[in-house]
Design brief:
Distance between the termini: 21 Å
Order of helices and strands: HHHHHHHHH
Shape: globular
Oligomer: single chain
Number of domains: 1
Helix content: over 70%
Number of helices: 9
Mean pLDDT: 84
CATH class: Mainly Alpha
């Protein structure tokens, strides 16, 4: 019975007169939350998909100095929590950070725009979650890309045309899988968006919960 107490509290809270709260949330909170969440999802999908796919193609199809090192080093962002990457990014590019301080000391008066907004959060989340796309796309290119290159060369296609006409369509299901993982991580993120002071569904649910109780 003791385990049912939290559930009963939640159910009883729904019977309280909180119409004003729901009206306020619908008028002022929900539109901004929807906008920020949509921007983050769109930005992470486009940026992480582009970065992850491009890096997967380069590291799997080309040979260059350090290729083996980069093939696994590019997975390391998964080992860094997104909120830590957010703290580090803000610390570096903020007005009092080392980057802008060095620019001012060098006589460069250009001010870098603040990244404490939804666009800065989207960029950091893209850099944090692109390995999901990179891992799956690279595996697809390793298993299918070489055959696509051989077939394309037989048809007289350049390597760029092989990528867009043969390799990319074959790897698309893998890439979509990586994008879905990155999107779910974006929706679930709380720390990084809090650092950037951006309200999303996750932070709104957290604030609403503590607003009710």
């Amino acid at each position: 019975m003791f385990m049912l107490v939290p559930i009963l509290i939640v159910l009883l809270s729904w019977t309280q007169p909180v119409a004003e709260i729901w009206t306020h949330m619908a008028d002022y909170v929900l539109p901004q939350v929807l906008k920020n969440t949509a921007i983050l999802l769109l930005m992470v999908t486009v940026v992480s998909g582009t970065i992850g796919t491009a890096l997967a193609w380069v590291t799997s199809m080309y040979r260059f100095p350090g290729q083996r090192f980069f093939s696994w080093a590019l997975m390391l962002p998964l080992a860094i929590p997104a909120y830590v990457l957010a703290f580090v990014t803000i610390g570096i590019v903020d007005f009092s950070g080392p980057l802008q301080t060095a620019l001012r000391d060098s006589g460069i008066s250009t001010v870098i725009p603040s990244i404490r907004n939804v666009w800065g959060a989207g960029l950091v989340l893209s850099l944090a979650f692109y390995p999901y796309v990179y891992l799956l796309a690279r595996q697809a290119f390793l298993s299918q890309g070489r055959r696509a290159i051989e077939a394309g060369q037989m048809l007289g296609l350049s390597r760029s045309r092989v990528f867009f006409r043969l390799a990319l369509p074959q790897a698309l299901p893998w890439i979509i899988g990586g994008l879905l993982l990155a999107s779910m991580e974006t929706l679930a993120d709380f720390g990084a968006v809090s650092v950037f002071n951006v309200d999303t569904f996750t932070t709104a649910i957290y604030k609403a919960w503590f607003g009710f109780f």
